[in-house]
Amino acid sequence: MFEVRVTADFSAAHFLKDYHGKCENLHGHNYKVYAHVKGSKLNEGGMLLDFTQLKGSLREVCKKLDHTNLNDLEVFMQNPSAERIAMYIYNQIVSDLRSKGIDLSYQEGKEDAWLYAVDVFETDTSRARYTIC
């Protein structure tokens, strides 16, 4: 099994509506995001996936989140936890690359590359991961 990972970042504000503690107040993070792809079949160029394609998609998604108040985005249902952010980024990468003819969705027994995890770090020591399996 092969794995590739790309990284991007963004800065954004948020607050947690259903949380009781200091994070219920508006605050910000410099988020770091990792997108992980794995598979057992390399392409004719000896690569699992072109880093440029994955990195471009991840950066595009992060660019849309950069310098926003995440609570203003309907997709997070007024509660933009790191877990929900990770799931959103995962789905956006799959959708973006699919529109470009690259299918990174998971299918049982798939040997080609598939996106299996997105990590969202709020700090160096606090990470949420969304994974498909």
Reconstruct the topology from this structure.
Layout: E1 2-14, E2 27-39, H1 51-65, E3 68-69, H2 82-99, E4 114-123, E5 126-131
Parallel strand pairs: 1-3
Antiparallel strand pairs: 1-2, 2-4, 4-5
Helix pairs in contact: 1-2
Written overview of the protein:
This protein has 133 residues and is α+β, with helices and mostly antiparallel strands. Helix content is 25%, strand content 33%. It is built from 2 helices and 5 strands, in the order ββαβαββ. It has helices at residues 51-65, 82-99, and strands spanning 2-14, 27-39, 68-69, 114-123, 126-131. A 5-stranded mixed sheet has the order 3-1-2-4-5. Strand 4 and strand 5 (126-131) form a beta hairpin. The mean pLDDT is 94.
Please outline what is shown here.
Helices cover 25% and strands 33% of the residues. It has 133 residues and is of the alpha+beta class.
Keywords:
133 residues; alpha+beta; 2 helices; 5 strands; 25% helix
| β-strand number | 5
Order of helices and strands: EEHEHEE
Number of helices: 2
Distance between the termini: 15 Å
Mean pLDDT score, rounded? 94
Helix content: 10-25%
Shape: elongated
Rg, rounded, reads: 16 Å
Taking pLDDT < 50 over at least 5 consecutive residues as the criterion, the unreliable ranges are none
Q: What is the structural class? A: alpha+beta
Strand order of the largest sheet: 3-1-2-4-5
How much of the residues is beta strand, in percent?
25-35%
| Sheet with most strands | 5 strands, mixed
